Amino acid sequence: MHALIVVGHHDPQSLTHALARQIAVGLANAGHGSEIADLASEGFDPRFGLADHAVHRRLAAPPADVLKEQARIERADALVLVYPIYWWSLPALLKGWVERVFSNGWAFDYEGGITVKKLRGMKVHLVGVAGADRGTFERHGYGEAMRVQIEHGIFDYCGAEVLSSTLLDDSEGADPAPHLHTAHRLGERMFADCEVTA
Q1: Which among 69, 82, 165, 193 is least surrounded, fewest beta carbons within 10 Å?
Q2: What integer pLDDT is reported at residue 195 of this predicted model?
Q3: What is the CATH number of the domain that holds 180?
Q4: Which residues of the chain have pLDDT under 70?
Q5: Which domain range does residue 77 map to?
Q6: How many domains are there within the chain?
Q7: Residue 139 has what pLDDT?
Q8: What is the chain written as a DSSP string?
């Protein structure tokens, strides 16, 4: 099995990148493959522009960079997003990736007031890295707000299934070892219900 791990952080030395690498190591230890999509180092442009608007309106084909990302997703058996939580949501780099790549005609069909979900069968794992502690999330309802926005508003809209959503809280002051262990374990168990293929 193969996972596409998409990293939405600009700093390759960040905890976010270390978590993505641990997920990849866990997958490899369990006999699976992965690809890390480092959006920042690859220079992905997250700005939804005129070309993307034309795709949404069915006036043009997706740009080459979007087609490349869609092909990477199609090759994967699971999509894993690893990202810092900025202002209680995805960082702009990753949100822009979603806005451009999950386009009308590929992720969903919307025409005449009817939406067809085109990503049924896609399996998704979310790994959010938070500076705040879990109590803050619960007290203010941030966790539920993020579930509605990301799990329902993005993935359910397209028909994808979020199999896990991991919140790694209090990441700025704590020892990173437990978070790295959690990421490694997620990788090892990601395809636990599937047979390993040669």
Answers
A1: 193
A2: 56
A3: 3.40.50.360
A4: 174, 195-198
A5: 2-189
A6: 1
A7: 92
A8: -EEEEEE--S-TTSHHHHHHHHHHHHHHHTT-EEEEEETTTTT------HHHHHHHTTSSPPPHHHHHHHHHHHH-SEEEEEEE-BTTB--HHHHHHHHHHS-BTTTEEEETTEEEE--TT-EEEEEEE-SS-HHHHHHHTHHHHHIIIIIIIIIIHHT-EEEEEEEE-STTTS-SHHHHHHHHHHHHHTTTTSPPP-
